[in-house]
TrEMBL record:
GO molecular function annotations of the record: structural constituent of cuticle
Signal peptide range in chain numbering: 1-17
Organism name: Tenebrio molitor
Lineage of source species: Eukaryota, Metazoa, Ecdysozoa, Arthropoda, Hexapoda
InterPro entries registered for this protein in UniProt: CHIT_BIND_RR_consensus, Insect_cuticle, Insect_Cuticle_Struc_Prot
Protein name, as recorded: Larval cuticle protein A2B
GO annotation, cellular component aspect: extracellular matrix; extracellular space
Alphabetized UniProt keyword annotations: Cuticle, Repeat, Signal
Length: 135
């Protein structure tokens, strides 16, 4: 049995060396030429866009909106939403390569405050005397 193994090992070694045709297929990947096609990316030297949305859901109370526009490297926009404390938060923002991103936040209460007159007259009731009779 060892003899058969030695003969098989010698046969495989000779086949791998290219001395004889191999009954065991050995494959080598041939280099494949890949042609690269260079496609010029579309380039817009002055990109522009505008978008916006507005959500007013009376069932859930969800209230939010946003608008934004871009002209070249300058982006401007604003968004607003109702915070859980009942105030509307509005953020106005700009972004450009010179000043970076800048935002200004405004908050306004949506619930009307009770207005109290500064000089309203105060009326005082006269004290009432209580007399007890035991009798």
């Amino acid at each position: 049995m060892a003899f058969k193994f030695v003969v098989l090992a010698a046969f495989v070694a000779a086949a791998n060396a290219g001395l004889i045709g191999s009954p065991v297929a050995t494959y080598a990947a041939a280099p494949v030429a890949v042609a690269k096609t260079v496609v010029a990316d579309e380039y817009d030297p002055h990109p522009q866009y505008q978008y916006g949305y507005d959500v007013q859901d009376g069932l859930t109370g969800d209230s939010k909106s946003q608008i934004e526009s871009r002209s070249g490297d300058v982006v401007q926009g604003s968004y607003s939403l109702v915070d859980p404390d009942g105030t509307r938060r509005t953020v106005e923002y700009t972004a450009d390569p010179i000043n970076g991103f800048n935002a200004v936040v405004h908050r306004e209460p949506l619930v009307a405050k009770a207005v109290v007159a500064a000089h309203a007259p105060v009326v005082h009731a006269a004290p009432v005397a209580k007399i007890a009779h035991f009798g």
